[in-house]
Amino acid sequence: MKGRKRNRTAVFAAFLAGVMLAGCGGSKTPSLDEGMAAVESLDYNTALQCFDKAMVEGEDLRLLYRGQGLAYMGLIQYDKAVEAFEKALGAGNGRVDAIDYDINYYLAASYYKLGETSKSIGVYDAIIALNPKDKLAYRLRGSVLAPNNFDKAKEDFDKAVSLDKEDYDQLIDIYLVLERNGYKAAGQEYFQTALASDTKSMTDYQRGRMYYYLEDYDNARNYLEKARKTEGYEAVLLLGQTYEELGDYNYAISVYSSFIEGDQTKASVYNRLGLCKMEQKAYDEALTAFQAGMNVENCTIMQTLKFNEIVTYERLGQYQTAASLMNSYLTTYPDDAVAQREYTFLKTR
Prior knowledge:
Blueprint: H1 30-40, H2 44-56, H3 61-74, H4 78-90, H5 98-113, H6 117-130, H7 135-145, H8 150-163, H9 168-180, H10 184-197, H11 204-213, H12 217-227, H13 233-245, H14 249-262, H15 267-279, H16 283-294, H17 302-315, H18 319-332, H19 337-346
Helix pairs in contact: 1-2, 1-3, 2-3, 3-4, 3-5, 4-5, 5-6, 6-7, 7-8, 9-10, 9-11, 10-11, 11-12, 11-13, 12-13, 13-14, 13-15, 14-15, 15-16, 15-17, 16-17, 17-18, 18-19
């Protein structure tokens, strides 16, 4: 289970943060509003139909092209997404505003997914040229550079950090990129520098997170225990994972269960509880936890939970059920290579 302990997220999920930036315009853009709601629900084909209708009805071209781009990203048709985002940029009035930056970020991401890294970098270059203090553009450009050019990526990460030294979420993001590309120690240096600064703006939760990624689980536990009651479920999640790393699954389960007793609205906590039960081979209890998470209103980690549910049925020896669920899963998340391999295995059982 170690390889499955991290939350699984759809490729498109990382891009959804800005989906509602344009907002629902109300009665003036009914088809566009329906399309954006469908995008948010991951119903991309319906979204495209809505955007086609919006075009016939003469609704905002820039927003509907943007919406098309988002839908095509969800369908992993990145070439069509690029085309749509470029049309969206061309539909502007010549003045650069917030929506143009938003569209460019999606355009850069689409180029990256197509493997056209030079074009992706070029988009970030253009953003930085317009706004040299855009820390997000530096960080994302560094992320694109990291697999092939560590030195240039490090320059961008250093610049992003220099623009906001107290953005500790950014440090986590940078670390995860560097760790994924084999530069874990370089990523940890950012935490060491931040912790040594002894800034008063750093909370117990932020310190605990950094110690967690430094793999100093004793210090992580101590700070996260203090943050547990004041920082909400994020601190609970990481505290539980810290106990998991320390090998104390029983205590991790008690952390998650105690939280759920008072709050049943956090799907991520159910997911961690289910993973701990998996570690203990309590598969029926794990299944109950994953399915409870799936029933949480506005669940944001549905892909993670669906995948873990399938794995649980597999562990229970219910291969036919697992295969049927995997077929449905791949209809919604066709770009999940791990799931595709798992499905191939399940069909042989």
